[in-house]
């Protein structure tokens, strides 16, 4: 079974994207309910006994706020649809580059697109020594592949081609759409929590009104902080909806496009431990690799590099290059190019069988 173009995998990604879009207004309403209930308990709103108590009254207010929540969600959908790449560029410092500025990377990406009959995505570069890459975009004609300067300086031609093929596979399999939607929504929830927290801390809620008033506001502050914590947890859950399997599939897609598993392994060896990129946490699931494994790997957005390399070795016949690791600040030494003649038709070496990707 081919790794690129798995139709059921693409369908699953489309379903995840739709569920995220549908769930966003409900998340907003849930947070409104919690904040409203906190304001009722803090006596900032009427007690609501005419409605049967604080909880029924908070539900009433939440239902009343539903049209506004839907409008806000629709407005944000429109903003994200039109300006998603501008938001990513602002958050990461990426910029589009023409063929004349990065001819090698541009030509490699173009050749890969021609081999698959795809429209050329925009090539972007981030001026940082960290070695990373990601794909972005929501639909055909708006996709982009972004590389860092450190990646361009430290990878040889075959390794760079493997990374480009990896990111192109995310576009082919529509991983990129799910990752963009999830990262933007997680970012919105995080921003909402920060606004609530800052408005409480810096809005003078601790001052004035006597002891009873300060006690009520203190109760609201506790509720708001709980809501903020729930919001951050929801942002983590949204990021976790992006299955870590996508990276194994993208690695497999890279091998299928380039027929060179050694180059993908070597690229992963080089970037491992050198992937730092200044970007919001909600966007790190989009990266080629993220060194932050969270708490004991529980909230990691990527599988460990060692497991990815092991999969490439086991199923594609790839070989580990002991000389692949280089400092991120210095150019990579000249290495002999690994030609496709050394490998079988599915990326494995001719002298070794290559198993199917699962």
What would you note in describing this structure?
The chain has one domain. The chain is built from ten helices and four strands; from the N terminus they run ααβαβββααααααα. The chain has helices at 7-41, 54-92, 103-116, 149-154, 157-172, 175-202, 210-240, 245-258, 261-271, 305-316; strands spanning 95-96, 122-126, 133-136, 144-148. It has a four-stranded mixed sheet, sandwiched between helices. Helix 3 crosses helix 5, helix 5 (157-172) crosses helix 8 and helix 8 crosses helix 10 (305-316). It is elongated, with a radius of gyration of 24 Å. The termini are close together.
Structure described in brief:
With 358 residues, the chain is mainly α. Helix content is 58%, strand content 4%.
Keywords:
mainly alpha, 4-stranded mixed β-sheet
For the biggest sheet, the summary is: 4 strands, mixed
Provide the helix percentage.
Answer: 55-70%
Please, what is the oligomeric state? single chain
What is the CA-CA span between the terminal residues? 8 Å
Strand order of the largest sheet: 1-2-4-3
The count of helical stretches stands at: 10
Order of helices and strands: HHEHEEEHHHHHHH
Summing up helix and strand content along with how strands pair, one would put the structural category as mainly alpha
Number of domains: 1
Mean pLDDT over the full residue set: 76
Strands, count: 4
Which percent band covers the strand fraction? under 5%
Shape: elongated
Q: Which value, in Å, is the CA radius of gyration?
A: 24 Å
Poorly predicted sequence stretches spanning 5 or more consecutive residues: 1-5, 203-215, 328-358
